[in-house]
Amino acid sequence: MGDELVVARDLVKRFGRLTAVDGIDVEVRRGEAFGFLGPNGAGKSSTMRMIGCVSPRSGGDLRVLGMDPDHQGPHVRARLGVVPQQDNLDTELTVRQNLHVYGRYFGLSKAHVRAKAAELLTFAQLTERADDEVESLSGGMKRRLTIARSLINDPELLLLDEPTTGLDPQARHLLWDRLFRLKQNGVTLIITTHYMDEAEQLCDRLVVMDRGRIAAEGSPTALIGRYATKEVVELRFPPGEDPVDVEARLTGLADRVEALPDRVLLYAADGEAVLGAVHQRGVDPVSSLVRRSSLEDVFLRLTGRTLVD
């Protein structure tokens, strides 16, 4: 095994007639934070479950930490940390007891688990709540405890499925800081997320998945440069004015013009210049905004704006 901790080639996962993962190639390198982005049903969680050795693949080749998860699952799992989308802590135990019990599952000595638990409580900023029952913790505290618990065995690879879903901005930023520190300490992260700002903050590289396939791969900066422009102009109009009609009046002003039900987007290198040209054509929006392009613009261009159930 070289620098690649996860290597997938033509990886497939089927559930009956449904193909959830349709022949993808993925490499995750040691020490990086790698992201899976995609709408619901894109195949992200199915891929993560195969990497985590809890769902056998239907086809293709997969190596995790140099091993075949279908035949060497226990050996792989012993070197993984997993943060599920929903916290599955034992709410009747204390914070400290959750760490102690989980550590014993890995066959670690009591002395080692006690020392490691104390270290992780400090890392998760939960030392003062160590002897409180989990039920009394806030959502952000529970999430930090779930991440701390996943580190009890000093994993080489940490899998995080939607790690900050449902948290307020302060809790999200604190978790980002904890995850960034883990990466600095050499832990390899694989993350699924619906938050584009989270992917931009945490991921060195990522793939955008759609309908079981990979639509694009690269760093957040590279993907924005490839599929978007430097800036976006957002124009909003009063009720009754059709954005599609407005779009026709703006032809040629930007690299790309997109009419949405409530606004018009113009993608260009110089947003202020485009906004000036909009006014010169006699188009008078109720409000306008010039912003930098983001990973969300890339995501929506690649996967569409239609709601996927």
Automatic annotation (TrEMBL):
InterPro entries for the chain: AAA+_ATPase, ABC_transporter-like_ATP-bd, ABC_transporter-like_CS, ABC_transporter_ATP-binding, P-loop_NTPase
Source organism of this protein record: Actinophytocola algeriensis
Subcellular location: Cell membrane
Record's keyword annotation contains Nucleotide-binding: yes
Domain called ABC transporter: residue spans: 6-236
Family: Belongs to the ABC transporter superfamily.
Highest rank taxon of the organism: Bacteria
Gene Ontology cellular-component annotations: plasma membrane
Protein name: Lipooligosaccharide transport system ATP-binding protein
